[in-house]
Amino acid sequence: MSAIALVGSVTVVLKPATLDRLLLPFVSLAAGTLIGGALFHMIPEGSAALDPLAASMWLAAGFVTFLGLELFLNWHHSHSSQRTGREPVTYLILVGDAVHNFLGGLGIASTFLINPAAGITAWVAAAAHEVPQELGDFGILVRGGFPRRNALLWNFLSALTFPLGALVAYFAAQQFEVSGLVLFGAGNFIYIAASDLVPEIKANKSFRAAATHFGFFSVGIALTLFLAMWNT
Hints:
Layout: H1 16-47, H2 52-79, H3 88-114, H4 116-143, H5 148-159, H6 161-172, H7 179-202, H8 207-230
Helix pairs in contact: 1-4, 1-7, 1-8, 2-3, 2-7, 3-4, 3-5, 3-6, 3-7, 4-5, 4-8
């Protein structure tokens, strides 16, 4: 699962002009998969074991935490004497991905411990979801100021929390309650998509660009919805 984060390496062979044309469609795809993953996967899963108020509090906590984190990053970015040229959303994407992958490792490993066949099915579904999301994340990192090689490296490092989560699940042997953390992660994803990604893909100068971005966004939503329906 961690190796899927390297899927962005397919873009290394592309010319810079070609990559520039693909970045916003990748960002649109990432926005769709982030929102779809939160709405169709993480919120239903996390809400199942909690009462509605507690579930809402965890979701709100994830949203508010990332708002505070971005405000701090924006302040630091504007006051730092050593400018990196990297947009704050790139750091949010890496943190959000690390949280998401950790929770994914917890959930899939826990499923595998109960039923290996079900665990393999859950992994396949998650892997299918990760491919477009990682492509989109790579596009966001490059557009946000990361060189392509650095974007691949940091995207891969953020994915290493998946086996960490799996190890925690293995040693905890189903005693670790993650419902609240799943909703916290969903709040992170909704904030990133709604606050940073959707406004960027809305700034279109032509009908063709608007249609393309909406199409990729819709594909991201549809993929996560299909996986949720297929996995029930």
